Amino acid sequence: MELNYFSVADLLGAARLENSKLSSLVLTQQAEQMELSEGDIYTKMKENYLVMASCIEPGCSPDLRSTSGLTGGDAYKMRKAVLDNKNLTGSFLGGALYRALAVSELNASMGRIVAAPTAGSCGIVPAAVLTMQEERGISEHDCVMSLFTASAIGMVIANNASLAGAQGGCQAECGSASAMAAAAIVELAGGTPDMIDSAVAIAIKNVLGLICDPVAGLVEIPCIKRNASGVTGAFMAAELALAGIKSAIPADEVIWTMKKVGDVMPGALKETAEGGLAATPTGKRLFEQVFGTKTQGNPGCSGCSGCL
Fold this sequence. Notes:
It is a single chain. This protein is mainly alpha-helical. The chain is built from 14 helices and no strands.
């Protein structure tokens, strides 16, 4: 089957037509396209899933610190609160939060992660799927398969908008990852194609216009906490969709809107570290702390005082 990775509606329409999960169709199509067996393609995706799972323990180390020294140790604090039964939302959402933080903090500390779809948003999809496995007892096989659905949504976004903060702001990174995660969650919960469409739309709608403003030009502040927010948004979107709540605007139109919003977003708010939180007094101080200079903006900038 030739799947159309330019439209969420077309992908989900194919799933309806075949009375099949989207992940199964994607697996079959990718095997045909790459001239490999479905088993080989599944094994490659399973390797990604195992890397995702292997991030949690090292990412939760109390001694984990990024090279810059700006981040690390928050996943440990969140997990401790969950294990001590002191968090507000229990092990389900609390578990998703610490897993998202763990993968993101490991990334900032030069650990091994899966870009899903980017390194800056790497904690959202793993946190969503691993939490579903832990809390709902879902099989590893189904979790691996859900990554094909998440990937298909990511491909549609890449083909119609962007996955890069430098092009579309953080809505394109954490927003896209949140939509991918929401699609995976809905499939794992037994939702319909229509529910996947609504979950994707809702996840992106709630972060439209989200800027990319990395403090000191590093993928740490506020990126890591936005991963925690992203997985929370994914579960929220999935919950609403699974309850039968529909997005008034379909996913494809929301993705198109994300592209238009990214196009008009000022360059200072798209990964240049020239605006947003990076331009606050504290953001400038942290830049100075890391790089030993008052030059604000990308570490590779010319050193002018134009953005001080």
